Structures are given as structure tokens and as C-alpha cells.
Amino acid sequence: MPLTDQPVKGMYIKDEGRYFFLQDRMLKTQGRQGGLITMKLKALDNGQVVSKTIKSGTKVEFINPTTQQVQYMYRDDSYLYFMNMETFETMSIYKDIVGEYAKYLKEGENILVLMYEGQILSITENPSVILEITKTDDAVKGNTANAATKLATVETGYQLQTPLFVKEGDKIKINTQTGEYIGKAN
């Protein structure tokens, strides 16, 4: 694997047998002693964010993952199952790697995964998704004393608060970072 003494934000790093995404780096200089680089790393196996400090000039291992298109098929208690679009093989991804984004995946949807040496590192997440409402209660007239929202369930089973005018069969846009309603889809 290639080594570098200049870790850069957005780089993928291998450290102690684990893979990390470099979210941020900060250089601190200490006079004659040289500098220290503080790296904010996100573990790709469980999403944990860790901070690591190294001396300036220390070599780190970096990797160049490849992207591959896969199709989401189904999930069980521990894994999500995808089909490789080139070889039609079934691949399983531990649900902790996908994290909270799993509640926005619908069957038959194509997504991109980051892979390195046959191992899936993570999936690419869209900032918003469009899903259809499968269940919601009718709006109750005069129920606007508080925030005028109601609970709705989308096709993946995820539940969220939506405005009163939204009804079953509507397609809505959801922010995947916050899990909140953005608006109706066109």
C-alpha cells in the first residue's frame, strides 16, 4: 500500500488493520520540535469517529477504494443484502456499516458502494430520498394548536412527522441527515 506523510481531508486511511475516512486534519506547530497533525477519522466498519495525533512527517497508509453499483434486495436482523450489477452475485453488508441510512433503502434501488480488495467499506449516501407514504391518519379539523403535523409511514417502514395535507400515496422528499420531511416530490 502507498504511504504518505501528508494526510489530506477526504482520504481513506488504513490504520491498525481498520479502514478510516479522514474527515478533518489540523496541523499544530510547536517551535523547534516540529508539528503535530491531529486527524479526525471516521471508522468505516462501525461509523465511530475517533481523533488521532501523529508527528508531522509520520507516514500513514492510504488506500484508493473503487466504486461499484449494486442493487438493494432485502435485509435481516444483522445484514443488508445487495446484488452486484456486473456479476449478479449476492453481497451482504453488516448493518452497522450502513448505519441509519438503512431505513431509507427500498427494494430494487441502485446505490454505489466503496470497495477495497473485495471488502465493502461503505455505501454512498444521498442527501435526500423520495419515498411514498403507505400509511397515515387523516387530518383532524381544528388540530392546529401545536405544530400542525401528523405521523406518516413510508414504503421502507420508516416513520416521520409530516404536514397535515400529506396523504397516503403521496411521494415525499426526506432529508437523510436529519430524517425530516423536506417537501412533496414532483
Automatic annotation (TrEMBL):
Alphabetical GO biological process terms: peptide biosynthetic process
Translation elongation factor P/YeiP central domain ranges (all copies): 67-121
Domain of life: Bacteria
GO molecular function annotations of the record: translation elongation factor activity
Family the UniProt entry places it in: Belongs to the elongation factor P family.
Positions of transmembrane segments: none
Protein name: Elongation factor P
Gene Ontology cellular component list: cytosol
InterPro entries to which the protein is assigned, alphabetical: Elong-fact-P_C (IPR015365), NA-bd_OB-fold (IPR012340), Rib_uL2_dom2 (IPR014722), Transl_elong_fac_P/YeiP (IPR020599), Transl_elong_KOW-like (IPR013185), Transl_elong_P/YeiP_cen (IPR001059), Translation_prot_SH3-like_sf (IPR008991)
Elongation factor P C-terminal domain location: 129-184
Matching Gene3D superfamilies: 2.30.30.30, Nucleic acid-binding proteins
Assigned keywords, A-Z: Elongation factor, Protein biosynthesis
Pfam families linked: EFP, EFP_N, Elong-fact-P_C
